[in-house]
Amino acid sequence: MSDDLLKSGLASLSVWRKEHRGRIVTYSRGEDEVEITATVDRSRFPIVTEEGQEIDFMVRDYIVDVADLVLGDETVTPAEGDKIADEDADEKACIYEVMAPGTGEPAWRWTDGYRRAFRIHTKLVSET
């Protein structure tokens, strides 16, 4: 498979993801904010308790195209402490904070080798 074909397929998948699974959220850092289309997902991390038992730890992720994450006229990378305003299934307003899950994984990672989108790990910090 050629590199161009793979790149084209990933671009098509990104468009499909945004159109069919995307939702509008507000991404903010300090006073700067932007409305973007994000896809909600989750990541599972195995952790070992003090007793030696392995359990799965889940975090809420947002998948965001790199080109969409623009704050103050500048394309930025996610940073711990940034906030994402969203609604839950009951349409309650929720604030999620970008943070590392505490497993050695950073607060975000690339979704593919072409670095087209971020997978941003978050934690619910406020619900109204």
Structure description:
The chain starts with a helix and ends with a strand. It has a six-stranded antiparallel beta barrel. The longest helix is centred in the first third of the chain and has 19 residues, at 3-21. With 128 residues, the chain is mainly beta. The protein has one domain (3-127). The protein contains one helix and nine strands; from the N terminus they run H-E-E-E-E-E-E-E-E-E.
Computed Rg: 16 Å
Q: Please estimate the helix content.
A: 10-25%
The dominant shape is globular
Number of E-state strands: 9
Estimate the strand proportion.
Answer: over 45%
- Number of helical segments? 1
| H/E element sequence | HEEEEEEEEE
Low-confidence stretches: none
Spatial strand sequence of the major β-sheet: 1-2-3-9-7-6
Task: Determine the mean pLDDT.
Answer: 88
Q: Count up the domains.
A: 1
Structural class: mainly beta
Give the termini distance in whole angstroms.
Answer: 49 Å
Major sheet description? 6 strands, antiparallel, barrel
Keywords for this entry:
single chain, 128 residues, mainly beta, 6-stranded antiparallel β-barrel, two-stranded antiparallel sheet, 1 helix
Compose a concise summary of this entry.
The protein has 128 residues and is mostly beta strands. 15% of the residues lie in helices and 52% in strands. It is built from one helix and nine strands.
